[in-house]
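Query structure, 468 tokens:
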């Protein structure tokens, strides 16, 4: 009996030792303070460890500008960053050239598991989550060095919040959640707000949010929602998106040169420069929370007015940038409208541009359009911030709570809530000439764009992270 007990005890203790040895290594501040550079001198930020901050993006890094800006700001102040996420598109060039930033890619789930069909989603969704759990655990637990801070983008919240929180506990790291929206409200777009999985997702999100050390939000309205509806005790800071330095207004000469060079505008460059054609730009991820049928119907109505009651109206060249699941559906609709001669005064083209060309396109355009409808009512479209940085006035869907935090009506943009309202705004702005309301909105957009990312990031994040 005693021999059997001793055997069992030995097996159990051995298993425990193996488990403990296999657990991810923790962040140890005492060792971090003794870190030295290659020449033996103490590094300026060594007291925060050889790697200061892990940033998790459970999405494409190249299409997550806010998280890229976080990484660049942290590195700029002497800390080291490990940026974890998918690499589907080219990230900001400064990320690739910065020696303090290391990009660690995640592996994608099998392509056959990607589906927009509701029933297929219920089948493949759990498999996708299990795959992501394993991938995140391996990368965050074993392929990265322990850091004092882990900054996680939300959404998606499943499974990143749970995995991040468990690993923060095991690795002695502190969790910061950067709230861009709520995961459960986006899920509701696919399954409906009353679906059980949406309710479970909401409970999950609220539960794991309570264990974070700090919360960041993209709007004041979202911060208030977290404080009251989620009942969070940790500090919540509204960190508004601001344009990065590469979004800047253009001189007339630079604008003319760029329009003549860009393939999508070369044939219309002279007409745009002369004011006979107006350049309209909209950036989109082609997802259900952006109803592009609103813009298409407004452009059809504009074309009808321009060929009948308002012959003074200029033509429109509309360039739609971005990638996403609903792109093909809208391309088919555009072809149908074009084939039925409903876009006589409008040319629509889609493209995907480099960061530099996209910034130049915004600076060269006459008007930007945002169709972001906000699944939660408290998130804000970053594309509008980028447009302001380039000095581009914006018209956007305004029927959600947080909109006035970003756009001041008749100052730097206009808001609409229907096809008719958008049509009237396009007619009013494009029919007003070079010195009309559009010119005044452009002045307001340039003024709004003067406040940059560092201006809002430094006062909030430097004290939190302990950066100088």
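Result returned for the query:
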């Amino acid at each position: 009996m005693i021999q059997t007990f001793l055997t069992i005890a030995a097996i159990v203790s051995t298993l425990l030792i193996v488990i403990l040895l296999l657990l991810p290594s923790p962040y140890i501040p005492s060792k971090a303070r003794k870190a030295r550079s290659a020449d033996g001198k103490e590094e300026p930020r060594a007291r925060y460890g050889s790697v200061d901050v892990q940033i998790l993006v459970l999405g494409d890094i190249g299409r997550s500008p806010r998280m890229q800006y976080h990484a660049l700001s942290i590195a700029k102040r002497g800390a080291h960053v490990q940026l974890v996420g998918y690499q589907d598109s080219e990230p900001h060039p400064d990320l690739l050239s910065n020696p303090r930033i290391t990009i660690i890619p995640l592996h994608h789930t099998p392509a056959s598991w990607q589906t927009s069909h509701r029933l297929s989603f219920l089948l493949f969704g759990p498999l996708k989550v299990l795959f992501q759990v394993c991938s995140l655990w391996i990368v965050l637990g074993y392929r990265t060095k322990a850091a004092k801070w882990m900054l996680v983008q939300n959404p998606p919240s499943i499974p990143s919040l749970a995995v991040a929180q468990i690993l923060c506990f095991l690795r002695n790291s502190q969790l910061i959640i950067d709230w861009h929206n709520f995961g459960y409200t986006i899920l509701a777009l696919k399954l409906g707000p009353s679906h059980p999985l949406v309710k479970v997702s909401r409970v999950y999100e609220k539960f794991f949010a309570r264990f974070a050390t700090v919360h960041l939000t993209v709007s004041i309205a979202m911060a208030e929602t977290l404080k009251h509806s989620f009942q969070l005790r940790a500090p919540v800071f509204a960190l508004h998106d601001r344009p990065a330095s590469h979004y800047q207004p253009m001189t007339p000469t630079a604008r003319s040169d760029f329009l003549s060079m860009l393939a999508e505008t070369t044939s219309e460059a002279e007409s745009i420069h002369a004011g006979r054609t107006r350049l309209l730009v909209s950036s989109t991820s082609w997802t259900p929370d952006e109803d592009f049928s609103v813009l298409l119907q407004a452009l059809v109505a504009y074309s009808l007015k321009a060929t009948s009651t308002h012959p003074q109206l200029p033509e429109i060249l509309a360039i739609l940038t971005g990638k996403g699941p609903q792109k093909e559906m809208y391309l088919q609709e555009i072809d149908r409208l074009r084939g039925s001669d409903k876009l006589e005064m409008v040319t629509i083209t889609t493209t995907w541009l480099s960061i530099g060309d996209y910034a130049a396109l915004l600076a060269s355009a006459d008007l930007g359009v945002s169709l972001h409808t906000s699944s939660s009512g408290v998130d804000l479209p970053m594309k509008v911030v980028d447009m302001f940085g380039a000095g581009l006035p914006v018209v956007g869907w305004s029927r959600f709570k947080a909109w006035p935090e970003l756009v001041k009506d008749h100052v730097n943009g206009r808001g609409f809530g229907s096809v008719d309202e958008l049509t009237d705004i396009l007619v009013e702005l494009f029919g007003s000439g070079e010195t009309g309301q559009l010119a005044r909105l452009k002045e307001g957009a340039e003024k709004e764009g003067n406040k940059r990312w560092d201006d809002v990031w430094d006062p909030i994040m430097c004290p939190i992270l302990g950066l100088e």
